[in-house]
């Protein structure tokens, strides 16, 4: 995954250079927010998005909408104490956003076998590999061993 992060680091430097050449103040929140979004989407899903230069991308809009909630919300704290309130927590997120992300992930999972590039290093591919693993018993025994340590 480091090459992916390195690639987006180069994009970050290029974007900062372009902004500084304009002679205006640089809004670091926007630039680093876009960098973070690009790195997270690339390392998690293998999706290449230039969120700084393409803020209208549906993936960018939906993820921003998903992350727009208050971390200090009493409901969020209550869920950590009372896990049975999870259905209420799920209602906090917009259904169109969660449905969009579910559909996008399912499309990515379905398209992976048809792609020419077989060796991907993102979390989605790691989960697919684990799901398709023939050695399930070995995973269970390792998991049991890790719980003992």
Automatic annotation (TrEMBL):
<dbReference type="GO" id="GO:0020037">
    <property type="term" value="F:heme binding"/>
</dbReference>
<dbReference type="GO" id="GO:0016712">
    <property type="term" value="F:oxidoreductase activity, acting on paired donors, with incorporation or reduction of molecular oxygen, reduced flavin or flavoprotein as one donor, and incorporation of one atom of oxygen"/>
</dbReference>
<protein>
    <recommendedName>
        <fullName>Cytochrome P450 3A</fullName>
        <ecNumber>1.14.14.-</ecNumber>
    </recommendedName>
</protein>
<keyword id="KW-0492">Microsome</keyword>
<keyword id="KW-0472">Membrane</keyword>
<dbReference type="GO" id="GO:0050649">
    <property type="term" value="F:testosterone 6-beta-hydroxylase activity"/>
</dbReference>
<comment type="function">
    <text>Cytochromes P450 are a group of heme-thiolate monooxygenases. In liver microsomes, this enzyme is involved in an NADPH-dependent electron transport pathway. It oxidizes a variety of structurally unrelated compounds, including steroids, fatty acids, and xenobiotics.</text>
</comment>
<keyword id="KW-0349">Heme</keyword>
<keyword id="KW-0503">Monooxygenase</keyword>
<dbReference type="InterPro" id="IPR001128">
    <property type="entry name" value="Cyt_P450"/>
</dbReference>
<dbReference type="GO" id="GO:0008202">
    <property type="term" value="P:steroid metabolic process"/>
</dbReference>
<keyword id="KW-0479">Metal-binding</keyword>
<dbReference type="InterPro" id="IPR008072">
    <property type="entry name" value="Cyt_P450_E_CYP3A"/>
</dbReference>
<comment type="similarity">
    <text>Belongs to the cytochrome P450 family.</text>
</comment>
<keyword id="KW-0560">Oxidoreductase</keyword>
<dbReference type="GO" id="GO:0005789">
    <property type="term" value="C:endoplasmic reticulum membrane"/>
</dbReference>
<dbReference type="InterPro" id="IPR036396">
    <property type="entry name" value="Cyt_P450_sf"/>
</dbReference>
<dbReference type="GO" id="GO:0005506">
    <property type="term" value="F:iron ion binding"/>
</dbReference>
<keyword id="KW-0256">Endoplasmic reticulum</keyword>
<dbReference type="InterPro" id="IPR050705">
    <property type="entry name" value="Cytochrome_P450_3A"/>
</dbReference>
<keyword id="KW-0408">Iron</keyword>
<dbReference type="Pfam" id="PF00067">
    <property type="entry name" value="p450"/>
</dbReference>
<dbReference type="GO" id="GO:0070989">
    <property type="term" value="P:oxidative demethylation"/>
</dbReference>
């Amino acid at each position: 995954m480091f090459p992916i992060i390195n690639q987006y680091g180069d994009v970050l430097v290029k974007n900062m250079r372009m902004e500084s050449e304009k002679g205006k103040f640089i809004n670091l929140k926007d630039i680093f927010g876009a960098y973070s979004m690009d790195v997270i989407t690339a390392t998690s899903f293998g999706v290449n998005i230039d969120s700084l230069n393409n803020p209208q991308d549906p993936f960018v809009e939906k993820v921003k909408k998903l992350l727009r909630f208050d971390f200090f919300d009493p409901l969020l704290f209550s869920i950590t104490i009372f896990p049975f309130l999870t259905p209420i927590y799920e209602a906090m997120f917009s259904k169109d956003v969660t449905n969009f992300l579910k559909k996008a992930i399912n499309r990515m999972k379905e398209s992976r076998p048809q792609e020419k590039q077989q060796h991907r290093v993102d979390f989605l591919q790691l989960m697919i590999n684990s799901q398709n693993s023939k050695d399930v018993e070995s995973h269970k025994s390792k998991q049991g061993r890790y719980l003992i340590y």
